[in-house]
Design a protein that fits this description.
Blueprint (H helix, E strand, L loop, with lengths): L18 H4 L25 E2 H20 L4 H21 L1 E4 L3 E4 L2 E2 L5 E2 L12 H4 L5 H11 L7 E3 L6 E3 L14 H9 L4 H12 L11 E3 L2 E6 L4 H17 L16
Antiparallel strand pairs: 1-4, 2-3, 4-5, 6-7, 8-9
Helix pairs in contact: 2-3, 6-7, 6-8, 7-8
Length: 266
C-alpha cells in the first residue's frame, strides 16, 4: 500500500549503519512494512520486523474504525483496511516458520526470501506482547512461540545462577549489562499469562529485583539486581501497575502473598 506519511515520498530511505549502502539486507515483497530499526533503535538483521507489523495491523484497524465512525472519511477507511489486510497476510504467510523443537512459531524478523531471525526482544512491541497489543494471534503458533521465548533457546533469555530469577532482555543493553533481563519483558509475560500462579511468580521476581529502589528499571543483572540501567523508567512502572490490577481483577478478594526481601548484590 501507499505510505500514509508522505514526508519521504519519492525519496529513498537510507541509514548509514545498514547493509548495502544504507538500504538494509535484500528483501522480497511480503505485504509487510519494511523497518530499518527495532523499537530499541537497534538495526534490523532482516527488515520485516514481525512484532512491529503486528502492532501496525492493530493500529490500522483502529484508524479504519475512527475513519468510519468519527471522521466520516470513507477513502481513509478503505485504505487503512486494505493495508491492514496486506500486512496481516504477510505475517501469516512469511512470519511463521517451523522450529525443529517447538513447531510453528512467529519469527522476529524475516526477509521474504526464506531467511528468518528467531528471538524476541523485551522492548514492546514484541512477539510476546502481541495479544496484549490486540493482535489476532494464531493461538497454537503463539503458545509455541511463547515456550520458545521463555526458554534458553531464545538467545536473550537469562536466569540467575540460583535459578530464582528468570526472564529475557535485549541486545540493546548488552554493552552495559551483557546478560540483562528487562522488567518490561517479565511484566508482559505476566500480562499475557492466563495462569494466576504465573502472574504471581512474575510479581515476586519483580519486587525482589528492584535493586532496593522501589522502582522498575530498564534492565538489570539477574545475579546482581542493584546493577541496572535507568534509575526509574515510567513505562514498565505503568505496566507493573497494570499487572497488579490484572491479578486483582481475577481475584476480587485481595490476593496475599509474601513479599520477598530485596536481594543483596551478589
Amino acid at each position: 500500500g501507499k505510505l500514509f506519511d508522505c514526508e519521504h515520498c519519492h525519496k529513498p530511505y537510507r541509514y548509514p549503519e545498514l547493509l548495502r549502502n544504507g538500504k538494509g539486507s535484500k528483501t522480497a515483497y511480503t505485504g509487510m512494512s519494511w523497518s530499518g530499526h527495532r523499537p530499541s533503535d537497534d538495526k534490523c538483521t532482516y527488515n520485516y520486523l514481525v512484532p512491529s507489523n503486528m502492532f501496525a495491523v492493530v493500529v490500522l484497524r483502529y484508524v479504519s474504525e475512527l475513519a468510519e465512525k468519527l471522521w466520516m472519511d470513507e477513502s481513509l477507511k478503505v485504505a487503512a483496511t486494505k493495508l491492514a489486510k496486506e500486512i496481516d497476510y504477510g505475517i501469516r504467510k512469511y512470519g511463521i516458520v517451523v522450529h525443529p523443537k517447538y513447531g510453528k512459531i512467529y519469527a522476529y524478523e524475516v526477509d521474504g526470501l526464506g531467511n528468518s531471525l528467531l528471538m524476541d526482544d523485551a522492548n514492546v512491541p514484541s512477539l510476546l506482547s502481541a495479544p496484549y497489543l490486540g493482535y489476532e494471534i494464531d493461538a497454537r503458533v503463539y503458545q509455541n512461540t511463547r515456550k520458545f521465548i521463555l526458554s534458553k533457546d531464545n538467545p536473550y533469555y537469562q536466569e540467575s545462577r540460583d535459578g530464582k530469577i528468570k526472564g529475557y532482555g535485549s541486545p540493546h543493553m548488552q554493552m552495559r549489562i551483557r546478560n540483562n533481563i528487562w522488567p518490561m519483558g517479565q511484566i508482559v509475560q505476566g500480562l499475557t499469562s492466563t495462569k494466576l500462579s504465573e502472574k504471581l511468580a512474575v510479581l515476586k521476581m519483580l519486587v525482589s529485583t528492584d535493586g532496593g529502589t522501589g522502582r522498575m528499571h530498564e534492565s538489570y543483572n539477574p545475579n546482581n539486581p542493584s546493577y541496572f540501567t535507568r534509575e526509574w523508567f515510567t513505562w514498565p512502572e505503568s505496566l507493573f501497575a497494570e499487572l497488579v490490577m490484572s491479578v486483582t481483577n481475577q481475584c476480587p478478594e485481595r490476593v496475599k502473598f509474601p513479599m520477598p526481601k530485596v536481594q543483596s548484590a551478589l
